[in-house]
């Protein structure tokens, strides 16, 4: 149907989870969905549809970075008509109060990306989450006793900054930026452009301050918490 997606119209549910990693999409479909079926495998950027608590839901990998996510999200919205898009990612920690395994629910997403910046010259657009999804996910995280933080995320186009470690992030940590990932700002910008609902939830997997990291085992159990939260939010369970 598109150069990047061979799903047919109607193959996706109205709500989709968006991990960067295609194998995370497979893991979500196999471990959380009932009746999961593969709907896209072009470039191995896997997409599945199934149900969660009896309600239809999809997952589609976006690849890494705002350029890649923008292709998948543009098509999910404009070709497949999706309404609710929830990123389920991993991120680095830029604030001492955020511990590994903690969730960051991105209220806003600061970015260095030309994809967002250049569309608004001379303005600096502020990409923000859908308030309904944000409030709903925060209430659920609170009720479930999860460790979570709500605030400003950095969506960077660059994983390896020239300046090493925290230095590469300049004044951002001192302005309350909680963590760094590579997609939320483009997701929020496209959702604003096409009047859809979007949210990004990330598990902090490596701290740029303490250098603490999640082990492979811990990583999976932590992601489980994030996926459950995102799925309940997606279907409004
Ligand atoms: O774990 P995912 O969802 O891929 O997210 C993070 O991991 C990748 C970098 O390692 C980037 O895509 C970043 O946003
Ligand atoms: O984009 C990312 C993701 C995880 N950790 C980082 O430092 N950056």
Instruction: State the fourth-level CATH superfamily.
Output: Nucleoside phosphorylase domain
Estimated helix fraction: 25-40%
Radius of gyration: 17 Å
Uncertain stretches of 5 or more adjacent residues:
none
So what's the overall shape? globular
- In CATH, the architecture is 3-Layer(aba) Sandwich
Mean pLDDT: 96
Descriptive report:
The chain is an alpha/beta fold. The protein has one domain (15-235): 3-Layer(aba) Sandwich (Rossmann fold). The protein contains 6 helices and 9 strands. It has helices at 22-31, 66-78, 114-117, 131-143, 184-193, 216-235; strands at 15-18, 34-40, 47-52, 55-60, 84-93, 103-111, 148-155, 179-181, 197-207. A 5-stranded mixed barrel has the order 5-8-7-6-9. Strand 2 (34-40) and strand 3 form a beta hairpin. 1-O-phosphono-alpha-D-ribofuranose (R1P) binds next to strand 5.
Sum up the structure in keywords.
single chain, 237 residues, alpha/beta, Rossmann fold, five-stranded mixed β-barrel, binds 1-O-phosphono-alpha-D-ribofuranose, binds uracil
In short:
The protein is of the alpha/beta class and 237 residues long.
Write the layout of secondary structure elements.
Layout: E1 15-18, H1 22-31, E2 34-40, E3 47-52, E4 55-60, H2 66-78, E5 84-93, E6 103-111, H3 114-117, H4 131-143, E7 148-155, E8 179-181, H5 184-193, E9 197-207, H6 216-235
Parallel strand pairs: 1-4, 1-5, 5-9, 6-7, 7-8
Antiparallel strand pairs: 2-3, 3-4, 5-8, 6-9
């Amino acid at each position: 149907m598109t150069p990047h997606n061979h799903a047919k119209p109607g193959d996706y549910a109205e709500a989709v989870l968006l991990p960067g990693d295609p194998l995370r999409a497979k893991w979500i479909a196999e471990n959380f969905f009932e009746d999961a079926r593969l709907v896209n495998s072009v470039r191995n950027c896997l997409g599945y549809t199934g149900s969660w608590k009896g309600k239809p839901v999809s997952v589609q990998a976006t690849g890494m970075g705002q350029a890649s996510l923008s292709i998948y999200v543009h098509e999910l919205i404009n070709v497949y008509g999706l309404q609710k898009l929830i990123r389920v990612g991993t991120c680095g920690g830029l604030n001492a109060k955020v511990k590994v395994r903690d969730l960051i629910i991105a209220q806003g997403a600061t970015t260095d990306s030309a994809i967002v910046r250049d569309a608004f010259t001379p303005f600096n657009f502020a990409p923000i989450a859908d308030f309904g999804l944000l409030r709903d996910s925060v209430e659920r995280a609170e009720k479930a006793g999860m460790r979570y933080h709500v605030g400003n995320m950095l969506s960077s186009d660059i994983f390896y900054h020239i300046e090493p470690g925290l230095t590469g992030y300049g004044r951002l940590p001192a302005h309350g930026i909680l963590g760094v990932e590579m997609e939320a700002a483009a997701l929020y910008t496209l959702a604003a452009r096409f009047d859809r609902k979007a949210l990004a939830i990330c598990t902090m997997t490596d701290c740029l301050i303490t250098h603490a990291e999640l082990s492979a085992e811990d990583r999976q159990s932590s992601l489980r918490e994030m996926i459950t939260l995102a799925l309940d939010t997606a279907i409004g369970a």
